[in-house]
TrEMBL record:
A single cellular component GO annotation: plant-type cell wall
InterPro entries: BC10-like, Glyco_trans_14
GO MF annotations in UniProt: glycosyltransferase activity
Gene Ontology BP terms: negative regulation of leaf senescence; regulation of salicylic acid biosynthetic process
Pfam families documented for this protein: Branch
Record's subcellular location: Membrane
Signal peptide start and end residues: 1-32
Keyword Phosphoprotein: no
Alphabetized UniProt keyword annotations: Glycoprotein, Glycosyltransferase, Membrane, Signal, Transferase
Official protein name in the record: Uncharacterized protein LOC111380342
Keyword Hydrolase: no
Organism name: Olea europaea subsp. europaea
Length: 355
């Protein structure tokens, strides 16, 4: 009756409308893919940072850098907007030169007014970022690698957002991290305690939406590298030791899974999944499992936390935001609207930086 080429051509013609209709449901969103040149650039950066962190002779630099000079805190700003609270951070960093470094990853597609002062010249080579995509993981790894490569004394790496503000003075935070570290006994019978420096990153295994988040890229896609019982979630913002920063930039195995685009964007926040899962797998006892950044999720909308306005700024609010359930006070808080700047400046010296 009909020859085979005719039947195949006719079937293909009929299938085109169905292909256009169903393809978006099965194919990954094009905008979520990480371009190969960006991936190769990052790999080269990670290799340089890893090699630079190895001392001559093959021994790795300790998690707190060298002991001859004071260790530093690297502050990593991830942004696609102006850093509206730069004047607050300027006061925070005042008189502490040599104890910190600043690195800013700003989305190159955004029009950002570069802040001056301590922020001047601190922008790193950046790539485009987009919410609910692995580009945010890439940006944070890029910040870590740049900071590792830039200064061997960078010993803690604090990721913050442009809507974050400090809740304490710099000296208070520095002393909390380096002078009064978490301690543990050297043995079960010994009364002698030794310093133990851990990363401050939220790691949750009992999130009510854990299953939805796990399958947001597709059922069984994370296997075998990430079984469901090893999957973790947590806050985007962390303070990592140098040792854990190196773990992050060396990783290739889990990245192959977490770089996959999401199909269910409502349950997919890659950066909130990748870092807790990776560090939980690699060194769960080396992490506190809680964050130093206070976020108010009461009344959150569209996945964004509550935003404080200028009328809410007070000494009482600052004191309330500092309180945590751990042995450490919260060091940062978000999210604040840009017009909170002046009210915050009004109480900066007498409240925020008076510990």
């Amino acid at each position: 009756m009909f020859n085979t080429p005719f039947v195949l051509s006719f079937a293909l013609l009929l299938s085109l409308p169905l292909l256009f209709f169903f393809a978006p449901r099965f194919l990954p969103p094009k905008h979520a893919q990480i371009p190969l040149p960006d991936e190769l650039d990052d790999l080269a950066l990670f290799r340089r940072a890893t090699l630079a962190s190895i001392r001559p002779g093959g021994s790795a630099v300790s998690r707190l850098g060298t002991t001859k000079s004071k260790p530093k805190i690297a502050f990593l700003f991830l942004t696609n907007s102006d850093i509206h609270f730069a004047p607050i951070w300027q006061l925070f960093f005042n008189n502490h030169l040599g104890l910190y470094n600043i690195y800013i990853h700003a989305d190159p597609s955004s029009k950002i007014t570069p802040p001056g002062g301590v922020f001047e010249g601190r922008f790193i080579a950046a790539k485009r970022t987009q919410r609910a995509t692995p580009t945010l993981i890439s940006a944070e790894r890029r910040l870590l690698a740049t900071a590792l490569l830039d200064d061997s004394l960078n010993s803690y790496f604090a990721l913050v957002s442009p809507s974050c503000i400090p809740l304490h003075s710099f000296q208070f935070m520095y002393n909390s991290l380096f002078i009064k570290p978490i301690t543990e006994s050297t043995s079960s019978s010994s009364q002698i305690s030794t310093p133990l420096y851990r990363s401050f990153i939220e790691i949750l295994h009992d999130d009510p939406y854990l299953k939805d988040r796990y399958i947001s890229r597709g059922k069984d896609v994370m296997l075998p590298e990430v079984p469901f019982n090893r999957f973790r979630v947590g806050s985007q913002f962390f303070v990592l030791t140098r040792q854990h920063a190196l773990v992050v930039i060396k990783d290739r195995r889990l990245w192959r899974k977490f770089r996959l685009p999401c199909h269910n964007l409502d349950s997919c926040y890659p950066e909130e999944h990748y870092f807790p899962t990776l560090l939980s797998m690699e060194d769960p006892h080396g992490c506190t499992h809680y964050t130093l950044t206070r976020v108010n999720w009461t009344g959150s909308t569209d996945g964004h936390p509550y935003t404080y306005g200028p009328a809410e700024i007070s000494s009482k609010l600052i004191r309330e935001l500092r309180v945590s359930n751990s042995s450490y006070s919260f060091m940062f808080a978000r999210k604040f609207s840009p017009d909170c700047l002046q009210p915050l400046l009004d109480i900066a010296e007498k409240v925020i930086f008076r510990d």
